[in-house]
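Students often ask what a holo structure prediction actually looks like on paper. The answer is less mysterious than it sounds. You provide the chain, you provide the ligand, and the output is a string of discrete structure tokens encoding the 3D arrangement of the protein together with 2-acetamido-2-deoxy-beta-D-glucopyranose.
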Amino acid sequence: MQSSQTWIQALFYLALITVSLYFLQFYILSDRLMVSHHKVTLKKHPNLPLRFNSDGTFKILQVADMHYGTGLTRCRDVLTSEFEWCSDLNTTLFLKRMIDAEKPDFIAFTGDNIFGSSTNDAAESLFKAFGPAMAARLPWAAVLGNHDQESTMTREELMSFISLMDYSLSQPNPLDPTKQQVTTNIDGFGNYDLRVRGPPGSHLANQTILNLFFLDSGDRAVVDGFKTYGWIKESQLSWLRGASKVSLTGT
Ligand SMILES: *[C@@H]1O[C@H](CO)[C@@H](O)[C@H](O)[C@H]1NC(C)=O
Ligand SMILES: *[C@@H]1O[C@H](CO)[C@@H](O)[C@H](O)[C@H]1NC(C)=O
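The corresponding structure tokens follow.
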């Protein structure tokens, strides 16, 4: 009799401990382990395919060298009198004004989007730098300069991250058409091809009439002891030749 009571008590305590641990993990620890408290959302895609408009236009806004820091990083190369009142936010404002004024069909960000020495969180800077393009729900794509990878992400990580951002058409590297995998035998990160079709309802509606080739021109480099910048390598040109032949033959 005595021993069966002890057993019941032991089981009761065991159950109590299990339930407590479960609640501790579920309500307290899991919250801390989450990256953020934001609801997980899926990447938003722009309307595809890219197309010329009915009036025959396709307007591209090209933006380079935003050198974005934290969002509040001070401007460089402004008058001393302007310094106090000039930050990354002015870049954001400028980009928004350009988008409103020009109403582009596509935005191409061509490097030094963020500035390594002014940020210690590349992801946060990327969100802020490309924010206006995402807010405008415009299709956009980016490649890297030599400053983008100078903080917390490598060039490969940056291009993967950028490719996952809302409305982004960026790719780390082209898909190998035979294997349906990302091509690995190509230098750099951010080599890809975007195709733009003819206007809706026209006889070119289902054909690519413009190819936008993006190439990674690399980071800094040292050649024969001299500090210089990277360049487009033979592997990239070889891909470019192949891809442009494919698009010329209309597939
Ligand atoms: C930056 O934006 C602020 C706020 O709109 C403005 O007062 C300031 O003049 C701008 N700075 C420059 C250099 O344009
Ligand atoms: C383009 O493709 C759509 C859908 O398959 C088809 O309805 C349309 O007739 C095609 N247009 C031309 C010009 O080939």
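The CA atoms of residues 7 and 13 lie 10 Å apart.
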